[in-house]
Amino acid sequence: MHIEPLGATVPGPSNRFTGDVWVDTVARPQPPGYATVGLVRFAPGARTAWHVHRHGQTLHITQGTAVVQTRDGRTIIAGPGQSVHTPPGEWHWHGAADDSFMEHLAISSAPPSEQDAAVEWAAHVTTEEYASALTHNERPSNP
User: Which Pfam families match (predicted)?
Assistant: First the structure.
């Protein structure tokens, strides 16, 4: 057993995010496991670019209102305590609603040999795509 060293909080890179985003690495892969966990904080309206995870991703919302959209236009609005899973190969983006900060744990996994290729990034989400997600969405209830 050991305490993991603290990493610095880093700004989300502009080629992967729109708006102010800050990232803390919470857990790195520890053999024999492959889990990676990041605590990601989004300013109102901030969001990721379109991306896909080879092995899927789970987002657990800890604060604020999250917007998650897939390429087919399905949009989920989720709040604290709710989790959204995107299966392997599903193109999506996620970010904060336009009126609140949002924080989530981003949980994904990939074998060490695939860490560099586990996520594929694409174009930024347009203003029109973001606005459409805010008006055409589902709000899941807690079970």
Answer: Cupin_2
pTM comes to 0.91
Confidence of residue 140 (pLDDT cuts 50, 70, 90): low
Instruction: Report the distance separating Cα 36 and Cα 111, nearest Å.
Output: 10
Residues in the chain, overall count: 143
Residue 39 lies in domain: 10-115+122-135
Q: Which residues contact 68 (CB under 8 A, 6 or more apart)?
A: 59, 75, 76, 78, 84, 86, 92, 93, 94
Encode pLDDT of 60-117 as tens digits: 999 999 999 999 999 999 999 999 999 999 999 999 999 999 999 999 988 777 777 8
Does residue 110 fall inside a structural domain?
A: yes
